[in-house]
């Protein structure tokens, strides 16, 4: 099950689980669309391809809430 991280690791913008616009690699590193584009859609952590993260909505989001642990350094 995807962790659904709540923010972009590069710029810190919020990325709600029920909204599009997030990109992830196979290790679930998470970036917003502008940052993914700036990174040429390659994860700076592992070198993996950044792909659209699916959304999680409704009953599924309630049963399996997104992570609240922020990844962007404060």
UniProtKB/TrEMBL annotation:
Q: Which domain of life is it from?
A: Bacteria
InterPro entries, per the entry: DUF1272
Any single Pfam family the record assigns to this protein? DUF1272
Protein name from the UniProt record = DUF1272 domain-containing protein
Annotated source species? Sphingomonas abietis
